[in-house]
Structure formats: C-alpha cells, structure tokens
Design goal:
The protein is an alpha/beta fold. 35% of the residues lie in helices and 27% in strands. Helix 1 (15-24) links the parallel strand 1 (4-9) and strand 2 (28-34). It is globular and about 55 Å long.
C-alpha cells in the first residue's frame, strides 16, 4: 500500500487542520468528512471536493477507508473512535484520548480486539523546543531532574466564545493533558502521586460549570516533583490565544522554554501579537509545522509499520493523571495512580 484512504470525523476548529493536512499529503487520499453541522458540511464538501456525512455509521458503511481521524469535542471521542475501530480502521484521535478512564480503556480494548492501531495527537512532542529539551535531559552531564514547572493557559474567549461544550471539559482535559503527556515524555517515567487545587468562579458566573484554573503537583517515579498550572481565563487582550512556559531544574543544568513568545512580534492598532511561527504555517506546498506533523507522521507510521510517537497507551497514562487531578480537586486529598495490571 503506497497511499492511505482517510476520513475525518469533526470539522471544527481543530478538525479542519486534519482535513488540510491529509489534503496536502501525497501519501494520503482524503475521501470524506463527517460533521454534524450542515453548514460546515456544505462548505467542506465544496472547498475540499470530498464526500460529507452527518453520521459516522453512514460514512463507514459507504467509504473504503484505511484510517480515520477523530477530531470531535473532548468528551465525544470514544463513540466515533470505537465505531471506526470496529470497522477495522486505524485511528488518530485528537488529544485527549478520552475524558474518562472507562472510555480510554474501551478504545484500547476495541483496538486490541479488532487488530487496529491507535495514535493520539499530542503535537507538543513535535515542537522543536520540546525536542531539544528532551534530548538534553538525556545527556548524563545534565544530572538528575530535581524540580519541574509547566503552565498552559488560554484566553477566556476559548471556553466562553469558541466552544459550546466547555462545561463538559476543563482546563485539565483541554490543556493539562498536553502538559501531563509532555512531562512523562521529558522524564521517561510515570507519575505516581497527584495533589491539586483549583478555582471555579468566573466561568461558573457566566453559566459555564467548569474550573477557571487548576494547579496540580505531580510526583514522578524518578523523584522529581512537577508543578503544573492550567487555566482558560486569561484576558482577551493577551497577545496570543494561549500561553505556556516550562522550567526544569536538574542537578547540573537548568532548562527554560517560553512558548508564549517565539521571537515574532506584530503590532497593530489594538495590541501586540506574538504568533507561534513554528506551530502552523502555510506555504505553496501546503500547511506545515508541529501542529501538522503528527497527522503526517500518522500516515507515515501506518505505511512503514513504525511505532507511533504518541499512541493509545500514552493517551491512557495522560488520562490517568487527569482523572487523578480531578479526584484530588473533589476530595482535597493526594491521589495515588495505579499502574495497569
């Protein structure tokens, strides 16, 4: 097989990136897109020349497919993913794998039963700055990691204006899952214990029942403690839609990364903008950047048989941490993370 026939479920804010990636990938043929919104379906069909469906079942029945991308809202990944898996399709799931451990395990169980592969789009693993830090952490000269810090925050427009489903998610699932996965990837080991605190005031006053911000403290198997701060109530006037920083103190080295300002500043009559030039860009050849590469890499790994850079087991471990964070928020107690039997 030299070319994969692929489809995308969910053509919203991030699903469109899957559509664009496949459309410009010479080793993939985008045949179809499934989307509930009829206006979006009509636009996607006209713009990209693909067949569109309202129901996943209809698409899977009528299309010959090798793989399917799931880019539905956070809490609605499991149902379409399992339907695709039961039809024998390999699946790429937009982060998080799921928002409950039960759903995550159901996806993995189905994949084992039907003999297909599942990848998760944790695109921070493709970020050049993150790759450089990870490689440096593996140098013996850096010494043992002692303490880590990471934050990821969005402006308040994201939960209040961009999405209608924010009350079904949280900064833990929408943002924290990126952090938890990246920390595991940096450290090369698992989280053993979690303690978390959070606030639920501003968004709740707007009728959105979810946390404003969450601070989580993670203990790793290697003894390193991490502080992870996530939230989505930054003011709308912030120079970027999101903000992120990382700092890792080792015995012999200190690593810092600022993903808020990647070196480009644009000033207009309203504010300064600091776009992430490495995340997603357009060229004559199509979209590129670390927001697109995981999708292209999914195609490459399916055709070559190589392991995925982030697979379903990584999605499961990140969801374990997210669920432990939520449990700690509810109980006010430390939560130990159980390993899979």
């Amino acid at each position: 097989m030299s070319r994969l026939k692929v489809a995308v479920v969910g053509a919203g804010i991030y699903g469109i990136n899957h559509i664009r990636a496949y459309k410009h990938n010479e080793r993939a043929e985008l045949t179809s897109v499934c989307e509930l919104d009829p206006k979006i379906r009509e636009r996607i069909g006209a713009e990209y020349g693909v067949r569109t469906y309202a129901l996943v079942e209809d698409m899977l029945k009528n299309e010959e497919l090798d793989a399917v991308s799931i880019a539905t809202p956070d809490g609605f990944h499991a149902a379409p993913a399992i339907l695709a898996i039961m039809s024998g399709k390999n699946v790429l799931i937009e982060k998080p794998l799921a928002t409950t451990l039960a759903d995550a395990r159901s996806i993995i169980s189905a994949a084992v039963k039907y003999g297909v592969r599942v990848a998760v789009d944790y695109h921070k693993r493709w970020d050049p700055a993150a790759i450089q830090i990870r490689n440096a952490l593996r140098e013996p000269a850096s010494g043992r990691p002692v303490r880590g810090y990471m934050n990821m925050d969005d402006i308040i427009d994201v939960p209040s204006k961009w999405f209608t489903w924010s009350g079904n998610s949280s900064p833990v699932h929408f943002l924290g899952t990126h952090c938890y996965d990246q920390i595991r990837w940096f450290m090369g080991c698992e989280v053993t214990e979690v303690f978390a605190v959070g606030t639920k005031q501003l968004l709740k006053s707007m009728g959105i029942d979810t946390y404003d911000t969450v601070q989580a403290f993670l203990l790793m198997e290697n003894g390193c403690w991490w502080t992870v701060e996530t939230g989505w109530i930054y003011p709308s006037g912030f120079s970027k839609n999101n903000d992120g920083r990382t700092q890792i103190l080792c015995e012999n080295a200190l690593f810092r990364s600022d993903s808020q300002n990647r070196g480009v500043e644009i000033y207009d009559g309203v504010k300064c903008h600091t776009p992430n030039s490495y995340f997603m860009q357009e060229s004559k050849a199509g979209p590129f950047g670390f927001g697109i590469e995981p999708i292209n890499d999914f195609v490459r790994c399916l055709l070559s048989g190589e392991p995925f850079i982030a697979d379903a087991s990584d999605g499961l471990e990140a969801e374990k941490i997210a669920e432990a964070v939520h449990k700690s928020l509810e109980t006010g107690a430390k939560v130990k993370i159980e390993r899979e039997s």
